[in-house]
Fold this sequence. Notes:
Blueprint: H1 3-26, H2 29-39, H3 44-58, H4 70-79, H5 83-115
Helix pairs in contact: 1-2, 1-5, 3-4, 4-5
Amino acid sequence: MSHWAIMPDERGKELLDEAFDELERETPDRVTRIIRWLRTPEARRVRLPLGILCILASFFWFLPVIGLEYLPIGLLLIAVDVPFLRRPVALFILWLEDRWLALKRWYRRKWRKRKQ
């Protein structure tokens, strides 16, 4: 196998690790521990079915408890084990996390202005 065939997968894995790290920084400790466990090789038997279940659940976004937010979670879980999904899913998750942080900053600025 040539060097060029290995490079894209390695970059995808790095991006996926970065996406998981960003997600862990934004979640409570209890959720962070679950995410870390799901990233381990031992969790593969749970990770794949859970990822598929989350994707299927996202199709029921119109129900009160289940939402569209399950789609990126499911894709993220499956991308750990499916190399060709790593890069696009990681870039998508990083974009979502960036939008989330921007929304939090905007909300904090707006809240501070109201208090003054």
